[in-house]
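Let's practice the habit of predicting before peeking. Look at the sequence and jot down your guess about where helices and strands might fall. Then scroll down.
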Amino acid sequence: MHSSTLFITLTTALGLVSAAPTDKTYNPTKTSAASRTTHTVIAGRGGRLIFDPDNVVAEVGSIVEFHFNPLNHSVVESSFDTPCQPKDADSFFSGFFPVREGQSDEVFQIEVKDTRPIWFYCAQNNNAHCQSGMTGVINQNFDRQEFSLRAHKELAAEVEGPSGVQGGIQGGWRIPNPNPLGGF
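Done guessing? Here is the structure:
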C-alpha cells in the first residue's frame, strides 16, 4: 500500500476528511438576535428606602430590570423637574409589589430606547418613599451637574402631597423573576 493511500484511508477512518471546496455560497436561514445587556436595580435593598444602584449607565437597547424587596415598592418614570410625579401619560409604571419577605416573584423590565436621562421614583406611601430619597436615574448627563441625581433627590425631598401613579402597569413588562434565588 502506498503511503498516500494509507494516509487517505487513515484520515477517512478517523473522520478527518474535509469537504472539497465548492462554488456554492452558504446562505444560512437561521438568524439570532444579539444578546442584550440587562441591568439589575433592587428596590428596597436591605430594608432601606433606596434603589440600588440608583444611577445606571445603559446602552440603547439594554434592559433595566427592577427587583422588589419588602415591604411594598413600585417604580414610576418621572422628569428631573417634577420628581415624585409621573412624567406624562405614557410614563412607565410597574404597579405596586407588596412583598412580605425575600423578594418578589415578578420583576419589572423596561427597554432603554435612547440616551436621554430616564428619571424614576417609588410612589409608595403617598410620596414618603420618593421624598426620602427613593429616586434614581438611567443615563444621567454627567456633564451637567445642575441636573445630577443629587440635585434630583434634593428636589424630591421638597415635594409635598401625594405622588402620582398611572392607572395600570404600563411602559414595560412585568415578568416572572428570572433569578428568584438571587438573594437580593
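How did you do? Confidence is low (pLDDT under 50) at residues 1-32.
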